[in-house]
Specification:
The complex is a heterodimer. Helix content of chain A is 36%, strand content 22%. Chain A is α/β, with parallel strands linked by helices. Chain A has a domain of 119 residues: Periplasmic binding protein-like II (D-Maltodextrin-Binding Protein, domain 2). In chain A, strands 1, 2, 3, 4, 5, 6, 7, 8, 9, 10 and 11 form an eleven-stranded mixed β-sheet that branches. Chain B has two domains: 35 residues; 238 residues, Orthogonal Bundle (MetI-like fold), CATH 1.10.3720. In chain B, a hairpin with a 4-residue loop joins strand 1 and strand 2. The chains are: A alpha/beta, B mainly alpha. At the A-B interface, helix 3 and strand 8 of A face helix 12 of B.
Chain lengths: 272, 294
């Protein structure tokens, strides 16, 4: 992952060296990491480059782990992540948005609400049939994200607590795959970022009677959310700091891509 | 004049030989580099994290957060998927090989050969995609499996993917037999079926073994296509229609989240090293089989 990023940087450097006009020096900012944050990072990069033609921003995905790795090894300027980076104290945390996660089921299940305890039973493997949690007589098909996925970390922390997730469910490594599998599999249940579940045709389940909406996150009623982080090596400066401030400050763009503006939040937490 | 020409051709010769040596040397260097790097990174689980090799190989508990990366589930998963593929695809491939070499009329081989070549050329992501959109729903609606993902879906996709390898190599094995074998058998009054089963098949055995082993090698290494249909659940195969995980699929699933220097990264490298060791063992088997033939 890092090597390919370095190779891409090398190619980029070569092409810049060959083609850049000598009149002004271009600033290049490299961003990599979380696929959940990717749509916002891409849109913001596009808008920022339009306003500042002398700045080039290259954005790629790779996952939260990759984002943290790459910025920590100085392969990129900014590392996107859904989760904190406790193993890298040298990194500076810049929060740019809030992202909500919904528990989604195949519409055939027909349940609109599940309690936290019921969700723990389902994902720990204690409940294997929907009738055990008040639904129809159908097998539960659990779809998980891989270990070390940012989405899974948030779900584990806010819903599962100390109850371990049963590993006999399907495991899929991208939000899009999760959504399409839940959609085509009767009895399937999973969790995914709002940006992936909105308009997907899946049933978004309320938790303990609280619906997964932006308002319920802003007021602190709905628990499954996290900050989106843009990590930098030490406090950001220059164009990098300006770009990060641009991402966090561009409320229209943040909302358009399915995120919540940090300044809207009425609750604040330090450990997310 | 002649002397100049001779000198010139001598120089060309020298350059060509140097170039070829460089190319050959580079291949060896690349091989050694890959081996060395994998051996270095893949053993860190054991000498940096001090996790015992036997537990890595035989513990089904892949609890990396708890410092316990047991890979037995993935090893068994790889073996199960490969076995399924070779049991289904192996005999079928050999049958087509016999047909192409001994029975099919010329025009038919002219038609079948390009078809098989196209099968080789189809990218594995396309096989996986077809498996996901055709096979998985089919299994879901016609079996007790609630999701359709699992061993059977992956095994069938793999069986199709190894067919070209098995077909081509087994056809070659039959074609390389001396014609006198077949002619002698037929002259003694044996039917075509008797000739194939009692004379040609036994004589081509070592060549067919090579075909099957290279088919197995192809199956063990396949990643993307089976990751899409296997279900990637960290559990031993619970039956043909239950999800499980293999070495390759687990590496590709967990790789994006593996931070550098973490136990998870080391464990994934160890699994990659294990795949390399399996591949090398299979090549040794091929060598042994080929030596027996000659």
């Amino acid at each position: 992952m890092k090597r390919s990023a370095a190779f891409a940087a090398l190619l980029l450097g070569l092409s810049l060296g060959a083609g850049s006009a000598p009149a002004f020096a271009d600033t290049t900012i490299t961003v990599a990491g979380s696929t959940a944050l990717l749509p916002l990072a891409l849109d913001a990069a596009g808008a920022y480059q339009k306003a500042h033609p002398d700045v080039k921003i290259s954005v790629s995905g790779g996952g939260s782990g990759t984002g943290i790795n790459d910025v920590a090894s100085k392969a990129t300027d900014i590392g996107d992540s859904d989760i904190l980076a406790p193993t890298h104290p040298e990194l500076h945390d810049n929060r740019v948005a809030v992202i909500g996660f919904a528990v989604v089921t195949n519409p055939s299940v027909g349940l609109k609400n599940l309690s936290k305890a019921q969700l723990q039973d389902i994902f720990s493997g204690k409940a294997t049939n929907w009738k055990q949690v008040g639904g129809p007589d159908a097998k539960i098909v659990v779809v998980n994200r891989p270990r070390n996925s940012g989405t899974r970390a948030v779900f584990t922390k806010t819903i599962m607590g100390s109850v371990p997730i049963n590993e006999s469910g399907l495991t899929e490594d991208a939000t899009g795959t999760v959504v399409s599998i839940v959609k085509q599999t009767p009895g399937a249940i999973s969790y995914a970022a709002f940006s992936g579940t909105r308009g997907s045709g899946l049933t978004e389940v309320s938790i303990d009677g609280v619906a997964p909406t932006d308002d319920n996150i802003i007021t602190g009623k709905y628990p499954v959310w996290s900050y989106e982080h843009m990590f930098t090596m030490g406090p950001a400066s220059g164009e990098i700091a300006k770009f990060i401030a641009f991402v966090a400050g561009n409320a229209d763009l943040v909302r358009k891509d399915g995120f919540i503006v940090i300044n809207d939040m009425k609750v604040h937490e330090t450990d997310r | 004049m002649i002397a100049v020409q001779a000198r010139r051709s001598h120089r060309t010769e020298l350059i060509a030989v140097l170039g070829l040596r460089f190319a050959a040397g580079f291949v060896i260097l690349a091989m050694v580099a890959v081996l060395g790097y994998l051996a270095f990174e893949g053993t860190k689980t054991f000498y940096v994290d001090k996790f015992p090799l036997w537990t890595f190989l035989f513990s089904p508990d892949f609890a990396v957060d708890a410092g316990h990366p047991g890979a037995a589930v993935f090893i068994v998963g790889t073996l199960a998927v490969t076995l399924f593929a070779i049991v289904v695809g192996g005999p079928f491939g050999i049958a087509v090989g016999v047909f192409l070499a001994e029975i099919a009329p010329y025009r038919m081989t002219q038609l079948l050969k390009p078809a098989i070549e196209v099968m080789v050329g189809i990218p594995s992501v396309v096989y996986g995609w077809l498996g996901l959109t055709l096979l998985v729903p089919l299994i879901r609606t016609h079996t007790s499996s609630p999701s359709g993902f699992g061993l059977a879906a992956a095994g069938i996709v793999l069986a199709i993917m190894i067919l070209p390898t098995v077909i081509t190599l087994s056809e070659d094995a039959f074609r390389s037999l001396p014609g006198s074998l077949k002619e002698g058998s037929l002259a003694l009054g044996a039917t075509r079926w008797q000739t194939i089963t009692r004379v040609l098949l036994p004589s081509a055995a070592s060549g067919l073994a090579v075909a099957l082993i290279l088919g197995i090698a192809r199956a063990v290494g396949e990643t993307l296509a089976i990751q899409m249909v296997l279900g990637n659940a960290t559990q031993f195969p619970q039956g043909l229609f239950a999800p499980t995980a293999a070495l390759t699929t687990e590496i590709v699933t967990d790789m994006p989240g593996a931070t550098e220097g973490s136990l998870l990264e080391h464990a994934l490298f160890s699994m990659a090293l294990l795949l390399l060791v399996i591949a090398m063992l299979l090549i040794v088997f091929v060598r042994v089989a080929l030596r027996r033939r000659s």
